[in-house]
Design brief:
It is a single chain. α3 crosses α4. The chain has 352 residues and is of the alpha+beta class. Helices cover 40% and strands 26% of the residues.
């Protein structure tokens, strides 16, 4: 799998770690750190099928495009829903790395994928990376990558628990001796919270708001546990009764009520995972606590809510947004770790 030729090329190439997320894609270059952190959004002309913009430029177009232009997310619930667009997005980000650091040999790429994906979904990610210009493509489960990036002792004979809350999926895993002992992956995370806020505004206030406004409200006033000081936030959208623009103020209490379904589902996933964990490892978790990673870990009050529900110490990992991509970078640095934690792909289609 790790050939001498590949090792020689690795001396000259800048190997890449990618957190291919539903909401954001982060790219790390070995020895350089995280160099790209952009939304996983692609703007396409529906008539010509031409890609017009990728990343931050494409996200600015969401909800603001004419009929012939559509801004799409090629990943849904953490897995590829549009293979060709994902491939073009990966090619774009790899080309950005080339522009930044000069033309380099085809890189070795490590990509984080959700735990519990099917063989077909694994092949789609693997093939997209190879067709986008990778010399080698290696897959690593996101909770494992997040645990490595969070500095947990994943290869030790001790239990570590990571809860990685992204845009499309929440990954919960108990890790010991370089393997995942118990895991749970639910397709409820940050995007689902945004949808709940959209639905709440429609049902409670007859106000139609967009996903971007919902995300802004979640970041500004979302919480999973009562705040020491509750906040007020403004919702702007279209009045469903008059059809005219309207803005209202709602409290962080209402936002917490709106996203309570998603938060409860995440809490239940953590509780169920703990219930299925061997007692020796549970004892380790009680000693070391539970680490939170991913953008969803930044939700105010989430460590307190999970700590209250599980009776354990729950803490945010350092820089939770970049845990997965930092984990892929460490796997690139230490090939022994990569060989231990890599997800095998049973079959890969020939390159196009």
């Amino acid at each position: 799998m790790f050939s001498p030729l590949s090792a020689l090329l690795g001396v000259f190439s800048l190997d890449i770690g990618i957190d291919l997320g539903t909401a954001n894609t982060l790219v790390l270059v070995r020895g350089k750190g995280t160099v790209i952190n952009e939304p996983s959004v692609v703007a396409i002309n529906k008539k010509t099928k031409k890609v017009l913009a990728i990343g931050a430029a494409a996200k600015r177009m969401v909800g603001r495009t004419p009929a012939n232009i559509v801004a799409v997310r090629p990943l849904k619930d953490g897995v590829i829903s549009d293979f060709d667009v994902t491939e073009q997005m990966l090619q774009y980000f790899i080309a950005r790395v080339h522009q930044q650091f000069g033309r380099i040999p085809r890189p070795r790429i490590v990509i984080g994928i959700p735990s519990g994906v099917t063989e077909v979904e694994k092949m789609a990610v693997h093939d997209a990376a190879r067709n986008a210009g990778a010399r080698e493509a290696h897959l690593i489960e996101e909770p494992m990558a997040a645990a490595i990036g969070a500095g947990l002792p994943v290869t030790d004979a001790t239990g570590s628990m990571i809860v990685d809350i992204g845009g499309g999926t929440t990954e919960v895993a108990v890790i010991s001796l370089g393997g995942i002992v118990v895991s749970r992956s639910i397709r409820i995370a940050g995007d689902e919270m945004d949808q709940e806020i959209v639905l709440y505004a429609r049902q409670k206030h007859n106000l139609l708001i967009g996903e971007r406004m919902a995300e802004e409200v979640k970041i500004a006033a979302g919480s999973a546990y009562p705040l020491p000081e509750e906040k007020m936030v403004t919702l702007r959208g279209r009045d469903l009764v008059t059809g005219l623009p309207k803005s209202i103020e709602i409290s962080s209490v209402e936002v917490r009520e709106a996203i309570s379904g998603s938060v409860s589902a995440i809490v239940e996933a953590v509780r169920t995972t703990i219930e299925e964990t061997p007692p020796e490892l549970v004892a380790d978790l009680m000693t070391h606590g539970i680490a939170l990673a991913g953008g969803g870990a930044l939700l105010a009050g989430l460590p307190e809510r999970l700590g209250h529900e599980t009776k354990m110490h729950v803490y945010r990992a350092e820089d939770p947004l970049t845990c997965v991509v930092r984990g892929t970078g460490q796997a690139l640095e230490e090939l022994e770790i990569l060989q231990k934690v890599e997800v095998p792909v049973q079959y890969a289609r020939p390159l196009r």
